[in-house]
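Is flavin mononucleotide placement plausible here? Inputs below.
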Amino acid sequence: MYVKANKFQCKVHFTEEKNILDVFEAIKTRRSIRKYLQEPIPDDKLEMIFEAARLAPSAGNHQPWRFVVVQDANRKKALTAAANSQTFLSDAAAVVAAVGDPEASARWHEKDPMIALEHMALAAAALGYGTCWIGAFDEDAVKRLLKIPARMRVVALMPIGLSNEAPDPRPRKELSEIFFKEEWQTPWRAL
Ligand SMILES: Cc1cc2nc3c(=O)[nH]c(=O)nc-3n(C[C@H](O)[C@H](O)[C@H](O)COP(=O)(O)O)c2cc1C
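Reply from A.M.:
I modeled the complex. Tokens:
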């Protein structure tokens, strides 16, 4: 299906699929999932999630990101050990290591992959899969395990899989506490 945005046309795959949440529903229902069913994700679904990362914005469109997708059980176990023994990493169908390339973007190589990774988290939520950001890991151990070159930065890991829990939403600050109107500390009055 093609949608028209200004004078440009973009091919849209996602809207052809049934049972997909719209973006705001995905944002609202996403949770950090720390219990997974040990079930694989079909490749077509996994690749839709990857596509969401590929289409993410990046400074200067340099796309200073690479992603290593781990599905092998032994390797997932080793990743778990490199990530403070957060055991749910081993149960998830896949664990993605998001990698930034400083040569591709000196200033944004850590931030851009994180934007792409959140695209993945939301696409996964839209398709009914759980994810969890993992920032607690031994970067050198992950690099060794996945044969990632020394100059690269591993910015985060993300397990993806079918959720085996339904956590309540975690608390968030009020909108008026974090959004200011025109000037610092002038609260935005929520509608
Ligand atoms: C950069 C980053 C690193 C995180 N690292 C971990 C982690 O190592 N382990 C973990 O269980 N959760 C981790 N989280 C998940 C947060 O704890 C979680 O997003 C937060 O408590 C809000 O819960 P929610 O995602 O369910 O809304 C991380 C989140 C972010 C954004």
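Short version: Residues 31-32, 34, 86, 132-136, 156, 170 surround flavin mononucleotide (CB under 6 Å).
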